[in-house]
Give the backbone structure.
Amino acid sequence: MTDLFRTLLRICLFQSGPQDMPAATSILAVLIALGWGASILVLEQLGAAGPVAVEVTFATAFALLFTWLALRLRQLPSRFTQTASALFGTDLLLLIPATPLLLATAGGEAPTLQLALLALWLWSIAIKGHIFRHALDIPVSGGIAVAVLYTLLSLFLTGGA
């Protein structure tokens, strides 16, 4: 498990790519389950309105479908497990520093913390761009473009869940 954590951390620091993740569906399933559960806990702490579990499930399904379609369009479906594992795993890692920032800024105060949260969000887009760049065999700019498209579609379709 420490090797997995180390690989995810290295991906967050742009030192490794999704190709360095184990190609194990069991690891992907665990990362999805952990991310799903952690997201629900955080959203409930923030007092999110509506059926939180449904929103998080929809966001999870969107992430899987988007990743599968992007890889399918590039004729690289064999990279799905590693790419999805990298995406879900790095999101889970980033949720650790994001949670206290989200909770602290929930009242709308603390502009410095909001700025830190914005920086973390931009870093998450850069990480996704890094992952998509490697997974899709495209230039850095293309990876960032795919990550921005992914983020915008996710926000639009899921309402930010």
Observations:
- The chain is about 80% helix and 0% strand.
- The longest helix spans residues 80-105.
- Helices lie at 2-12, 25-45, 52-73, 80-105, 111-136, 140-158.
- The chain has a mean pLDDT of 93.
